[in-house]
Every structure is written in C-alpha cells, then in structure tokens.
Amino acid sequence: MALHFGKRENEPVKALNPGATPQRYGAATHSVSSPAQTPAQTEPESVAVAQPASNTVAPEGGSKLTVGPNIKLKGVEITDCDTLFVEGLVEATMDSRVIQIAEQGAFKGTAEIDIAEIRGVFDGNLTVRQKLVIYASGRVTGKIRYGKVVIEEGGQLSGDIECSVAAQARSTTASKPAMALAA
Fold first, then answer.
1. How far apart, in Å, are the Cα atoms of 140 and each of 53, 112, 122, 175?
2. What span, in angstroms and rounded, lies between the C-alpha atoms of 100 and 128?
C-alpha cells in the first residue's frame, strides 16, 4: 500500500475542479474503438497524458526551479537551472540564465546570472552578465557586477558596485600600453 502525499492509494482523490474527473499524475486516458467496428475500420489507439499545471512548467527547452513562499533552501549549489523563481528564502551558490526574486523572496549567496529581476532582497555576490532590473520593492546589497542596470524609483542598490562593461574597457585600455612597451 503506497502513500501519495499523505493519502493511501485506496483512498479517493479529492478533485481540485468539481465535476472534472480526477487523474493521478502520469495517468493516461485511452480512446478505444467501439466493438461494432470491424478490424479494418479500427483506428490506432490515441493516448493523452495528463500534463502538470501550466504555472509549474518551465519555458520550452528550459528548466525552472520555484522556491515557494515559506520555503527555505539553504547550503546548496544550483546548477543546470535556466530560471530560478524565489518566493521564499534561498541561501546558495548558482550559475543560471535568469533569476526572479518576488517581493517576499530573498536570496543570500553567490549568483552568476544572465538576467536578474529583483523585487525582493538579494544579499551577496551578484554577477549579471546582461541586465539587472531592480523594482521599487527590490533591495540589492553586496558585491555587484552588471552589464546593464535598470532601477525603478524606490529600488535600492548598495555595496561594491561595478559595471562589467566599464571594467572590461578599463582592463583593455590598461593592457594596450603595456603591450606596446613590450614590443
């Protein structure tokens, strides 16, 4: 007798949508031809697989991790995640494509990201390769590196802050005279 989220397998499943037929995740429904048809008239059996709710599905070709409200995820390294959506608390190290922190969400640690959208709190080392967006309710502190930044009125950015484009330009111009002297 297996347990599924605190329910025994033989207990009835309560439908989330009254009137809809309850299905277990991964259950398939089958369409079978009627017995009055001859074998020549029988079409191949079609199978429909139950899909998870649309808000939990990652964008096509990408993976998404959502840390919900009142959830604390501590001491982890997050890899191979295209989008991290934080509504709770995350203390981690990550390298990802997108991070989205909700108003009630907080991230503490180190993150290397292509695009960051901050409505909550980020504290730590943040490297944004492309675009950092801080909304009115957002607060970002720590060692911050970014390609482009957009800060909505009321948003806060503090700490050791540097534009990556400016840093790359300085290192390129600084190395050119040294190379000329070496020649």
1. 32, 14, 5, 32
2. 12
